[in-house]
Design brief:
Pfam families: Response_reg. Keywords: Phosphoprotein. InterPro entries: CheY-like_superfamily, Sig_transdc_resp-reg_receiver, TCS_response_regulator. The chain is of the alpha/beta class. About 40% of the residues lie in helices and about 20% in strands. It has a five-stranded parallel beta sheet with strand order 2-1-3-4-5. Helix 2 (about 40-50) packs parallel to helix 3 (about 70-80). The longest helix has 14 residues, at about 120-135. The protein is globular and about 35 Å long.
Length: about 140
């Protein structure tokens, strides 16, 4: 069975991260899950590894509300970095915000594949991952 090699969670909610990691690990669809508690740590990792596609994720689950650098700021920085990355990275926003303006802003961003409102079910995670595997 095909799998995703790397997945990244960018979220400061320890409970969401714990439950999401556990749910994904039980599927055996993802080999490695990296977690960053804020966008700055994540963008720094991506900058350091932009020429190392093996270290880069295929998929990012991005929260919007975080300290230091929030999800919107991460997307701004990622937009500048994306041309230097030779790997397709699929970004899903996973947020508890149900604000129509957040959803609209996310859908206008070409780098964002979808906006998912928390809590995210295990079935939804499996659907996202399998969809990405099928697209590879």
């Amino acid at each position: 069975m095909k799998t995703i090699r790397n997945m990244t969670l960018i979220d400061d909610d320890d409970i969401f991260v714990f439950l999401t990691k556990k749910a994904i690990q039980t599927t055996n669809l993802v080999e490695l899950i990296k977690v960053f508690g804020n966008g700055l740590d994540a963008i720094n990792f991506l900058k350091e590894n932009c020429n190392n596609s093996d270290a880069l994720p295929e998929i990012i689950l991005l929260d919007l509300s975080m300290p230091i650098m929030d999800g919107w700021q991460f997307l701004d920085e990622f937009t500048k970095l994306a041309p230097k990355i030779d790997k397709k990275i699929t970004i899903y926003i996973c947020s508890s915000s149900i604000s129509p303006s957040d959803v609209l802003l996310a859908k206008k961003n070409n780098l964002v594949s979808d906006y998912i409102i928390k809590p995210v079910s295990k079935e939804k995670l499996i659907e996202l991952i399998k969809g990405l595997i099928d697209a590879i």
